[in-house]
Structures are given as C-alpha cells and as structure tokens.
User: Fold these one by one.
Assistant:
Number 1:
Amino acid sequence: SPVITHIFMRAAFENLGRADTAGGIGQGLLCALVINVFVYCEIILELKKVRTMKPQELLSGTDEALGVKKSRHFDRRKPVGFSPCAMAFRMMKRDKKNTALIILTCFLSIYLVNMAVVCFDNIGDMREKNYYWLGFDKHDVTIQNTGDQEDYEKVLDEIKKENDVKLVVKRNLEVGLCIPYEQSANAMVYENYDGLNMHVISGRNPKNKNEIVISNYYAKKMHKEIGDYMEVFLGDSTDSKVSLLIVGTCQGFYSMGKGVRIRSDLLMEHDIPLVCNEASVYLKEGADKDAFMKKINEKYHGKAKAVLREDMYDSIIDDIVNPQKAALGPFI
C-alpha cells in the first residue's frame, strides 16, 4: 500500500520539492493492530455461541448444498479440513464473485486509509515546517520592525554582534513585479542568499543580482528551464524591464505558488524603493531560542519584535490545514 501510495502521489510531492513520502510502517502497524483486535473480538464472540457444538454438527443438514452426500453417521476418526485456511479456500471456490469483491474492497480500503494517514501526517507538521510549505528560508527567529526604520536598522546591526547569533539577513517577502503576458507576481527579496537554508526544486538560489529563481508554476506554464532568460518589470514602471538568468526553480503555497526570488541589490541598481521590515536570524548550535527572544523583546521594546519562525504566518497555515483536518479525520 505505501508503494502504490507513493506512485500516485509522487507528482504532487515533486511539485512541492519533496522526493520522499511518509514511510507508512507506523501507519501500517497501527492499521494491522486495529484490524486484528477487531477480528479477534469477532472470533471470541462467535466462539462463545458455538463453543459447545462440534464442526460436524454445524454442517449437518447442509451437505447436499455443499455437493457432499448426506450421511447419518459421522466417522470421527476421519480428518476434516477445518483449519482457517481450508475453510477460507472452500468459501472462495464456492463464491468467486463475492471473493473478488471482498479482495478489491480490502485493497481499496487499506490503500485509501494509508493515503489519508500519509496526508494527515503531512498536515500535522505543516506548522513546524512552514518554511517548506510557504517557500521561505528555514531560520530560527524573525525580527520584525515595530518602530522607525532607521532605529530598526541599528537594532539589526546590534543583533548581529550577539554571541548566540550566527547570521542575520534582511528580507521582504511581498515585493510586486510584473511578468510579460502574466498577472503581477510576488517576489521574495533577500539582501543575499549566502548561508540561507532555503529549499529549491532544482538549481540554486541567486548569487548575483542578474539571477532569478522562478516557481514551478511559471517554469511549466512558460516552458522555462534553468539557463533560460526571463524578462520582468520591476516595480510599477514599464521602463524598468530587465532580463534575468534563471538559476533555479522553487515552489510553495505563498502567493498560490506564483512567485520568484531575487536579490535586493537588483532593485537598488534600478532605483526601486525597497523597505525590509523583517529579518531572518540564524542562531548558533545550542543557543536557547526562548531566552534569545525574551532578551531581544525586552531590550528593543517598541523598536523591534522577535518571533519564533514556527509562529510566522499562522493564518495562512490555518487556511491550509484546518479544512484538510476536518475532512481527513472522519474519513480515516
């Protein structure tokens, strides 16, 4: 069942950049346990009804229907095939149509339940893996601007000097640009992608200002590949048309999968105004996230706010997760 599930869901996982699926071993053991407990309970209930009866007495009066000549006397020394396998085999031979339907029903039931559990397992960790599903970088803490932009820049400079901090990168995930013959697109803009843990389906993230990563949606619709060039209009002006080298493809639910990734120095070169009110902070291994956030929020109250990455974009994750949980739970 996990193998067949993988075959049917491979395209969906690849579209989101996943090459693997849930193993299915845990789900399989759980299903096997539930089914066996149910079956054993049924057997116990039936045995209570017939525990004083002999197998020959159960078949008495039905021999003619079974194609066996009725006998008034039983030879108790003669071995009779009353093992579970023998009885099941005889029933399958007598009613081939129902046997085929039962096998098909079992197969579909196990497959559908397994697929639903795999989906349920995936949506269960969406909040922790929001970076993957929405398409931004896997950082530890986000620093948001809650005051003046100039003060915010100074705060970031000071945070970079903290002992627990490994990397600080400013970002803006909602920069608008236009793609010819398409609707306006959403660009995720980082000052640089060096050292970022940011997933791509293929290729890499931009290293130079003339490079771009496009979503899988645009790659398929516009028949673009890595190494091709893509023309975009920066900002609201039609005079800011640039041709960018495609160096990778990505995917995520953010902006319904219609997005691109570029560097901030591209916008600066063309005098496009850019305000970065968020920054990704990577902490050193072993650093206490809660203690770090408490320190930042107390020290820079009114200027900046530290938010755990897992708590970012809760509303988007809820819009994705809640309808699926509501449907999959009763289905399973």
Number 2:
Amino acid sequence: FPAAHAAVASVRWAQRDEAAAAERYRVLAKAGGSTDDEIAVRSALVGARLFDRQDRNKATELYERVIELRPGQPEATDALMTRYRESGRVHDLIRLLRARIASSAVPATQLADHLTLAELYLDSLDDPTSARDVIDRALELAPELGAPETLLARAEIAVGETATAAKSLERAAEKCRAAGDVRGQTDALMHAAALWSDLGRPDRALTTYEQVLVARPEAVEALAGAARTKALGGDHAGAAELWQRLVDTSTDVPTKVAEYSVELGIARMAQGDLAAARNAFAWASHRGSAEIQVRAHRLLSEAASVGEDGETAADEINAAITLA
C-alpha cells in the first residue's frame, strides 16, 4: 500500500524520526516496478538524502535505484560518482558516466564526462586504446579546446608514440592560445619541449621553449630548459646568457638561485672565461644548499686546476670534502 507507507513516512519525518521515515521511503522505492514509477523515484531520492546522514550504504543503494529507474538523473548520478570514486569502484563509475553521456543533451556535460571517462581509462585502468576512443568523441564535441588534445597526448605517450604526443601538445597549446588560456598554452608547450628533448630533438625543444618565453618571458622552467638545450647543442654563450638572466631576475629563494649560478659558471668555463666562472661558483658556494655548496667548491677546484693554480685547487677540494 504505497499511500499508507507514504503517510507513515510523512508522520515519522514530522516527528523527527529520520531513520524510521527513511525506511518507509526505502520500502516505497523498492516497491515501484515500472520505469515510469515517479513515486519510486521520489521516494528513493528522499530516502537517500535521509540515509546519507546515518547509513551511506543504504543511501547508495537508493541512489542506484534512482538510476535504475531514471538513467542520468542528476542528483543520483553526482552522489554515486562521489561514492564510486571514494570506494574505488572504477567500473561502476565508468558505467555511470556512459549512462549520463547517453542520456544527456547538454554538450558541456557530455564533454566533461568524456574527459573524465578518458582520465579513468588512463589513470585507473591503464587502457589507452579505450581512452583514445573517448577522446576522439571529445574532439568532435569541442574541436576548439586544448584539453582533449592534452589527454590525447597522454594516451599516445602510453603506447610509445612520443613524437605524435609532442605534436598533440603543440596543437593543444595553439588552441589554448586562441582561447586566451596562457597557463594552458605554456603548460602544454613545456611538456612538448620535454618530449622533444627525450627524443633527441634539441632543435624542436629549443623552438618550443622559445614559444613559452614569448608567452611568459620570465617563465623560469622555460629559461632553464632553453639554457640546458643550448648547452647540449654547444651554444655555451647562449646558455650563459639565459643562466645569467635567471640569476639576475629570479625571485626564487637563494638556494635555488645558487643552482642557476652553478650552471652559469659551467657555461662560462666552457666559453673559456675562467674569471666569470669562478665568480659564479663562489657566489653559489656561499648561498646554495649543502649539496650545491659541495658541487660549487669542486668546480672552483676544477677551474683553479685549469688556471694552473694548484694551491687554490687543493683548498677548494678540501672545502668540498669538509662539507660533504
């Protein structure tokens, strides 16, 4: 007798007996057998809200009943997504997302769910093939956005397609630039530059770092990446210029700036400018972390040896040993 259960539930609720009211709504929710049973849906929602404060398992059960009767119902879907994430029920979460995608007519919701679904395939199931299928659909929904391209790059990296992933990240960066998303643009470019470096393509890496610096002239990681890339390519003067720029303009803590100063000294020494190299190493030897101080003293010893100053070389290596 649904009407009787509903009446009793209302009375119990009015009496502030939420547990008893929730049980009555639970009975009503279970009683409905038709997908058109609005009473069962409403009862399940009310019961779930009440159980949520006292028995989350029963609340989950009722939210699942709502989805059984009304696939994609917003409140139940959101609640179950949270619960499934918390409990690690990845396959149930995927099933829920796919159901909402199928029932939703809102492009923004479909896109967000496709991206979440792709992340689940990548992060939880190690399934880049399924992720790519989902990402392809996301690209159809929003070809102008960078986020699907970024996820596509992750899927490509997972299957060893590193060069293709770098190109996907470059497309993502361009789309972010067009949308005015500077952070998204530079993050994608930095990732692409690292991939080009890993592939042994310093020319592409350097070009990509330079694109970052056009968008954010004081981007520390881009300056450092470009400097290292120049040094690897034998352009020690170019590397020194960038390291000097970092030392002069960085707002990092002194211990971090000392790391840049060591790299500056290495570049200056490669140029043959021992005086400038010693100045950079000496600065770092007083301001760096213990590890950097040791390295700076060892490099000072090396610079002294190159300059045929054996006494200073010995003193500096002794200082390094003492600190170590």
Number 3:
Amino acid sequence: TPLLSVMKELDRARSFLQTTLYEIPRLLGGLLVLVADLPELSTDLGQTGIEYVADLVLLLRYKVYHNIIQRFIEVKKIRGSRIVAPLIPFKFVESKGIEPLLYDIETRDDIATKLIEQQGYMFGISTLDETIAPVKPGSIILVNYPPDMRSILYGFRPFMKLILRNKLRATIVSFKNFPRELIELLINEAKKLGVNEEDIKEHFINIHYIDPSRSSIHEIFYKLIEIVDNEKPDIIICDSIEAFINSIPLSIQRNQIHLLLVDYGATLKNRGIILVFYLASRNKDVIDMLSSISDTIIKIRYYYRDKKIEPIITIWKYGREPVIIDTIKFIQELDSN
C-alpha cells in the first residue's frame, strides 16, 4: 500500500504491477505474495489493476455479531478455477497465524459398508427398545424437555444404560454445565444403577465445556469437529444446546446455525457416530430446527392430573408412527440395575 501510494498517477501504479511485480515470480520460479492494507469498510483494492495481475486475491474481513468478532476470508479471484466457497471463516492462532475453520465430510466406502451392516444398539429398556431401538451408528437423537424440568432421570439415564450396555466410548460437550458438575452427575447416577465408578471413567472419555458467549459460530463448530477427530467417540452428547442457540439472537445467525447443524450431523452420520442433543426449550422455532435434522425425537412434557404432576413421553422415530410410552413401566426399568 505505501509503495503504490507513492505512485500518485494511476497509470504508473498499473505499469509497475503489470511489468515489474508480475515478472518476479516468473523469473525466480517462486511465489510472490502481495499484502495491502485496506481502509475500513472498503470492498475493493482500488483501481490499480492488481486483480488483473494476481492469480489469487483474498480479502481478510470481520464482522461483530452479539459482541463477538467473526472473521472471514473473502475469495475474490482464483485464476483458472471457479470459487466454491466465497467466504471462509478463520481464526488467528498464536505462533501459527491464520487457521481456516474448515473440515471435510468423509465419504469413505468402508465406513458406509460398516454402517449398513451394523445391526445397532439396544437400551436394555423394553419401552425404548420397542420404539427407538436399534440405535444405529450415525443416528441423530433429540431429547426435548421443558426448561423448568429439574430431574434428568428420564432424559439422561437411558443413554447411560445404552453406553454401558454396549460398551460405547462417549464424549459429552456442554454449553452450560461445567465438567465437574457433569462428572458428579455421572457418578451419582452410576451409584443408583449399581455401576462401578471405574466403568464410568472408562466409557465416558472426556467432558468438555464450551462457552457460547466467547466464540463465533464457526469457531464452536470447528471445536466440535476437533473433539470428534481427537477422541473418536462412538457417541457424542451435546448438553444444553439451547444455551448455544439462544446466545445468537439474529435470525440470519439462526439460519447459519441451522446450516452448520445439518453439516455437523452429516459429518457424524458419515463417520458412524451417534449424536444426541439435549434441548431444554419450549421455543417452537428452536425445536423445529433440531427436529428437522434428527432421526428420533424424544419429547418430555409434564401435565397436572388428579392433583398430581405426571410426565408424558412421546417418541417419534423416522419411518414409524409416533407413540406415547408407558411412563410407569419406563421409570421402573430405569431404576433397575
């Protein structure tokens, strides 16, 4: 930028770019990288003709949403190739520089064959085995319950049984609860089921907390993929997903979340990893968003009947009619070891 600003005449600047700089990489047989500072809110590089000389033109941009900085690489030009992704999210990494927040959706034939041949997993709970099971690798399950529900008996314990019964490797990611709280919860539930504490530590690989108020949408999804890549679980549980979705108030951002959730679900489905969302919300739009990408939906509601508060559990599974399960039998089976 300072170099071109010295050449006040536009023709001189263009001539310098199209002759001197254009020939340098050809003579050296190497790569020439030009870095230019742009005025804030500028959308182009001026009239210097640099776009005609360069083979690749990238602009680093940022926007502030909900007090969070979102950074993007805008791909203006790729000579000889079409632009597939015009905006690439990225972050700055210390001692490394720019790191694009991209990941691939695996389509390996060996994984696809394994998923077709896999019979799936059973809960060992007849009310669920008759309505949901078998749970096949790559399944996406939504557990929706009211935000004022304080007992996790109906939502969490069935998946503990699924994990322990089938010896699955599980990872929990929470957007609200800290690892210490979830570890205490797991240990307490294990004691009630007569399960050894060491078995819990063996099957629940890691527990993570992600603060949705400190990261951009793309950084959060990139972190979720990193966790899967590093730990390679059989099942990943996203706890309190509403804390993440509710932190993004703008409708355009909600649309981005939906698209990224679809992408994330497809990535895990292709890798044969079961994905479970725990959603404490009555918001129809949020419920519909997650329901649209889920294979199975477990909806827990409470009703006041005969001076008693009773739970009603409704289950929808893809390809089957919705059913209301026998809650009394279900609770009895949950309490059994």
Number 4:
Amino acid sequence: KSDKSQSEDDWNRFNNSPGYDVLTKLEFGKNYLRDIITVAFKPSEQKSESEVKNRYKKQGNYYRLFIDETVNGLKSADSCRESVMKFVKMITDSKTLDKVKEETGKYIDDAVIDSSFAVNFIVFSDSRGYDPIIIGITDPDKSTEEEHILLVAHELFHNLRNKRVKLQLPERGEPDSRIMNTINSIHNEGIADMINVHKLYADNPELINKIESQRVIKEQKYQKSVISAFDIILSELSVNKESADELEGMASSLITRSGHPAGYFMAKTINEVYGEKELKRLALKPFEFFYVYNNAAKKSGSAPGFSNETLSYLKRLEAKYFRE
C-alpha cells in the first residue's frame, strides 16, 4: 500500500508461509498470488488490475470464475481484521469443532479431529481439504456461522477421505491422468457438497439471493446435459485409444469447477433414491459411486444414466487404480 516493491526474498517468504505454500506448489505457481496481491494493494499497479485479471481468465475455468471474487476479497480483508480474528476464534472453539465433526460424520465414518488435525487460515476467497486444511478468509461477516461451520466440515471430509481412499492416481502427464483426476474430483466434491451446498444453497429461502446459491441453482439446471455428454466421451474412450489424450481433455473441460456441479447432481440423485447412509457407505468408493448413481438414475426416471460401454470403461479403470 505504500507503493514500495517487495524484494524476491519477501515474496519467497510469503510463498513458503503456511497455507500459501501448498497453493503455490500444487495449484498456482509462484506468480498468481503475487500478481493479484500487487494489483489489489499497490497504488501504482492498480491500473493494471483488468489486464492482469483478463490474462488469468484465459488460462482456465477456475480463474475465469473466481479471480474477480479473489481480488475483491483481498481488498475487503484489509478492513475486516477484527472480524477475521473473531472468525478464527469461533472456528477453533471446541464446541464448534464438535459441530464440524458431527456434520462431517454424516458422510464418512470416524470423522475424528485428533492431534494430527491442523488448519492454516489464510487471506483468500477459497478453501481446500489438504493436510493441513486451508481455510480462506476475507470478509467473514458475509457468511453465517452455520455456513462457516459447514464449510470446515466440507473440507474435513476431503481431508479424511483423501487420507483413506485406496486410489492410486497416475502422475500428471501419464496415461489416464486427466480422466482419473476428473473421476476422483466428481466423487470427492459430490459427496462433500452434500454437507454444505445441499443444506445451505440448493433449497434455502433464507440464502436464495446469495451468489453461492444462485450459482448452484444455475449450474444444476444443465447438469443432465453435462452428464449425458460425459457419458458419450467415456464411451468413446472405451474404444478409441488413439484419441485418448484429446478425449480426456474434452472430459476435463466439460466437468467444470473441479467436479462440484456434476458431482453434486450425482450425489443428490443417489440421496433421493437411496438416502444419506448410502452416500456415507460410498465415501471411500469412487467407482462404486458412479455405479450406484447409474442405478439411482434408472430408478428416478429423471436423471441420465451411463451406457454399457462407459460402465465397462470405468470397471477397467477401477481394476487398474483402485484397491479396497
């Protein structure tokens, strides 16, 4: 804010600080956070805000959907320090953590918070279920206490599920890596979204005007088409090895927001037909999640199912990458 340039050592210390270090290494690289913080706070660079945001929006769905929200969140956080500290105190209270465990425990067994449980709180507009869990905060007063609790429960589900699931994902660039990442994300986000998205934003008149609620309602309207198209791509992948790279790319582009919309649609369909306990049983079974969804879709009569070719393809991937 003083318009001074930070040294490379300063930025390296920032990128290596708890929470930001994981986002830098696993997702964004060292320049993204640096660029958006600079245009958000450095007076002489604020004129470049639109240029920087447009450049990142061209790099993919995540940036296109969230960079405006992220930059605005950084700006608002500067005036919300007192609220941020109250939020951290509330989330780390033992009674709050008991509620977090209770909500997570509806969808995964042994939802414990033990000595290995750790959370990094960072100024950011998104959260992650990594280990430690990353909780992004900008303006906590924009959300209710229930929203905060269920968000942490959502991320705790990811944290526990990712530690326990017997899935051997191929390394980036290897055959099947993109399609396996897509399948994994659909399962992971689908069940986790039952914890907070389903309860808060799908059918809640009190929150109907919130951005999150409007996004969910809009996305769910076209998920039948998305899943039908996904089925066509997987069917083609089952027989067309020569075009696998292109087809995997098409699938990952089709399934937006890390699998949230498609996964939630599938989890919601399973819940409507078989109930919450069945989703809990599927918490560590990513492929069976797809098979059970297919059965639920047939029973519901209103959701698209998968072709035999797609199911056979999923079975081959399961035999290769999943161990009970």
